[in-house]
Amino acid sequence: MPLCDICFVCFDPTLDERRGAAAAYAVDLAARHSAHLTLVVGVAQTSIASLSPVFDLAGIEAEANARSRERAETFGERLRELAAVAGVSASVEIRQGALFPVYEAVARVARVHDLAVVDAPRPGFDMHREFVEDLIESSGAPVVLVPQGWTAGARIRRALLAWDGGREAARAMHQAAPILDGCGSIDVVRISGESSRARRAAAETVGGADAARHLARHCAEVSVSDRPARDGRVFDTLQLHAGLTGADLIVMGFYGHSRLRESILGGATRDALSSCAMPVLLAA
């Protein structure tokens, strides 16, 4: 299926004009695929009125929540204007409520889109990281993390697929197919590990050559690379390889907290959330 319906997802603490990279990426991606763009803003509702039996805090609470919604609406209008300039049809949906119900409400919107774009979590912003993790795990859609300061847009000439042969990597490969339409080159990268568990896992999974054979029916140029983990840091190795080969996007599976067994790529997904310097597509 082509990429026709994209959503840009943000959470109200991230409504910061300095963090416009993901919004610009989403607009550019929608323009390149002639897709509709939906901005989904999750707004956590303040609840302080019950904290004091003496002071009437209901008015303060209502004013704070109204300001949060107004900020979200203003942000939505700015994005809609940006999309209009790029010739992209766009709509805005705001979900406001208690923290965790808002997470679920935003994920429900993402479930009925081909792909979601979101700001990569900033170090130290645990609430934002939790929001992004929940979105990836529960939306059912692939999610593209865009780091702050990314200015190269959404043109994907070369992609890197992180491959361990498991279910998560395969799902990421298949879910990334629409965004990789027109990609000139895909590099299937396997990261070797030294532990006996990693060697056993590698022997039991689908090899990189098999994945490349499948991808070669979709893309003219496909290569396979095996790289040792650099100082045991799998994602750092992937990102270094992507930089050296000129990749525009890293595609990888997401290994959530509830997973009882992890392959060598399990830690890479956590590092991708905290230290990506280029767009990363994660699929759970």
TrEMBL record:
What family does the entry list?
Belongs to the universal stress protein A family.
Give the organism the record lists: Labrys wisconsinensis
The name of this protein is Nucleotide-binding universal stress UspA family protein
Q: Which InterPro entries match?
A: Universal_stress_UspA (IPR006015), UspA (IPR006016)
Q: Which PANTHER family match?
A: STRESS RESPONSE PROTEIN NHAX, UNIVERSAL STRESS PROTEIN HP_0031
UniProt-listed Gene3D superfamilies:
3.40.50.12370
Q: Which residues form the UspA domain?
A: 157-282
A Pfam family the protein falls into: Usp
